[in-house]
């Protein structure tokens, strides 16, 4: 991802981010450091860092990384030959650039070999690799050795079409007993992912250090007698700060949603309850129309209980 560039003036600006590649969610976050001020020299959100921080809408990137489809004999096509020049057809899953001789190596057996380096021609998703000066007796094969130079138009590098995912050893992060819902989000506008875990009648928040570790847990009560079952995140009051919403399904009062309004620094205000008129076991939040959050609740079938504004 490239460095964001900013243009505009007055009350309207455009932030452009280039060289985006990969798969996942992407959003822009304004981190208030009191550097942005109006003509009266008043900082956005008032004096103090993060008071005016704001999280923008999300893009979901779904780019598919390129891979090698095949490396086949081209000319001659027969496996047994006396030719001194061999051509291979190399096919990629998408149009790529950066394909050169350094990306290939010969695999030989017996006395077979080549007196000259391979040469590469072609473009897009199809290339020809030519081996000249072939001598000896044995087998000659062509292997692609990816050195990171081959990329598609979006800058995505090659991946193996049959690669097996590998992971580092797991690490354990303690929470309150009985966790049943978790979200990962930047809760304090520092650009680092944080954890919010629902357990019992409290939400435990661990602010992220940006390296896979987290600070000590701070808990926020969901209210006396509450029995929340799921957790969602949304800006429910339109102040640009993430808030928490919880489904509150109890036998005595099964029609409520609990709100924890965020302060923008990873802390939350006292829980309050909103009546929604639907049984709700699980919640999800999404901005489906580009203007406001829709809150979804479902028991057996999804029900929209928003747009939602606190």
Question: How would you explain this protein's 3D organization?
Answer:
By secondary structure, the chain is an all-beta fold. A hairpin with a 7-residue loop joins strand 20 and strand 21. The strands form 9 sheets. The chain has a 4-stranded antiparallel beta sheet with strand order 5-6-11-10, with no helix packed on it. The mean pLDDT is 82. It starts with a strand and ends in a 6-residue tail after the last strand. 0% of the residues lie in helices and 41% in strands.
- The proportion of strand residues reads 35-45%
How many angstroms does the end-to-end distance come to? 35 Å
- Label the structural class: mainly beta
Tally of helical segments: 0
Counted beta strands: 25
Low-confidence stretches: none
Net shape: elongated
Helix fraction, binned, reads under 10%
The largest sheet, given as strand count, sense and whether it forms a barrel, is:
4 strands, antiparallel
Rounded to an integer in angstroms, the radius of gyration calculated over CA atoms is: 28 Å
For the largest sheet, list the strands in their spatial order. Answer: 5-6-11-10
- The H/E string reads EEEEEEEEEEEEEEEEEEEEEEEEE
Mean pLDDT: 82
List the SSEs and their pairings.
Blueprint: E1 5-9, E2 12-16, E3 23-30, E4 54-62, E5 68-75, E6 86-92, E7 96-97, E8 104-108, E9 113-114, E10 119-123, E11 126-131, E12 134-135, E13 140-144, E14 151-152, E15 179-185, E16 194-199, E17 202-206, E18 218-221, E19 228-234, E20 243-248, E21 256-260, E22 272-275, E23 282-286, E24 294-298, E25 302-304
Antiparallel strand pairs: 1-2, 3-4, 5-6, 6-11, 7-14, 8-13, 9-12, 10-11, 15-16, 16-17, 17-18, 19-20, 20-21, 21-22, 23-24, 24-25
């Amino acid at each position: 991802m490239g460095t964001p560039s900013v243009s505009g003036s007055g009350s309207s600006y455009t932030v452009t981010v280039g060289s985006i590649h990969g798969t996942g969610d992407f959003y822009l976050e304004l981190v208030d450091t009191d550097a942005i001020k109006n003509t009266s020299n008043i900082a956005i959100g008032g004096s103090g860092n993060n008071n005016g921080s704001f999280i923008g809408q999300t893009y979901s990137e779904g780019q598919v990384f390129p891979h090698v489809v095949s490396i086949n004999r081209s000319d001659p096509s027969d496996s047994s030959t006396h030719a001194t020049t061999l051509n291979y057809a190399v096919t990629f899953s998408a149009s790529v650039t950066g394909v050169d001789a350094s990306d290939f190596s010969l695999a030989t057996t017996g006395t077979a070999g080549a007196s000259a380096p391979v040469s590469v021609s072609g473009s897009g998703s199809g290339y020809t690799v030519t081996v000249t000066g072939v001598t000896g007796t044995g087998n000659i094969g062509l292997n692609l050795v990816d050195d990171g130079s081959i990329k598609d138009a979006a800058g995505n590098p090659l991946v193996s079409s049959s690669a097996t995912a590998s992971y580092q050893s797991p690490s354990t992060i303690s929470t309150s007993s009985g966790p049943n819902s978790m979200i990962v989000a930047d809760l304090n506008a520092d650009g680092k992912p944080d954890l919010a875990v629902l357990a019992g009648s409290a939400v435990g928040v661990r602010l992220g250090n940006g390296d896979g570790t987290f600070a000590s847990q701070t808990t926020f009560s969901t209210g006396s007698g509450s029995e929340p079952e799921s957790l969602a995140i949304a800006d429910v009051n339109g102040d640009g700060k993430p808030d928490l919403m919880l489904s509150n399904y109890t036998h005595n009062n099964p029609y409520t949603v609990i709100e924890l309004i965020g302060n923008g620094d990873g802390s939350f205000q006292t829980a309050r309850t909103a009546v929604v008129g639907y049984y709700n076991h699980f919640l999800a939040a999404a901005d489906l129309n580009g203007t406001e959050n829709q809150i979804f609740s479902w028991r057996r079938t999804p029900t929209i209980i928003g747009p939602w504004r606190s």
